[in-house]
Amino acid sequence: MRSPCRALLILLALLTPLQAWAMDMRIEGQSVILSGAVDGSECTALGAILSQAAIRTVVLTNSGGGNARAGYCVGDLIRERGLSTVIRGRCASSCSRMWLGGIERTLEGPNCRVGLHGNYASSGGLLPDAPHRLRSWIPQRAPHVDRVLMEQWTSLPTNNWMMYFYNDKAEVCEGRACTPLAGRNARNAGLATQ
């Protein structure tokens, strides 16, 4: 008797989607809060929310990124809808593409940060076409972006490198080892609008 029950439990576990890996999306007033890893389903899920609720702001929180295509798609969707974006906490990699879609882009508080780098293969190496794509996409969303900094972050050699921008500072990091970018921040780098 144990064997059929165990087999049924295993079958159910295999058939159950792994929603824990997808970004969490919840509505708060006229905002939708997105948090967690970007798995690729976000554009469809956010599109469904936007078709049913009067959303003005997308809040991005505690995301280290993930699926690059989803980042671009959500960023484009946010821009098409004329929404604002806010970061609470950390929003890095593909999450930064989502944030850059906002008409108005802010970082909420001194410890909030946006992390930018290129697009990478599963091995961690920079994809050959990634810098070109980013260098054409980013200025369409952030026309005042510092192009020298953009050249640097889109060419970071591996996915363990990141350029972080805060309200009052910026730094380039390889893993946990970070070097300040003197005098730079999210606003004067042309990323945040407020």
TrEMBL record:
Keywords: Signal
Residues making up the signal peptide according to the UniProt record: 1-22
Cited InterPro entries: ClpP/crotonase-like_dom_sf
Recorded superkingdom: Bacteria
Record protein name field: Uncharacterized protein
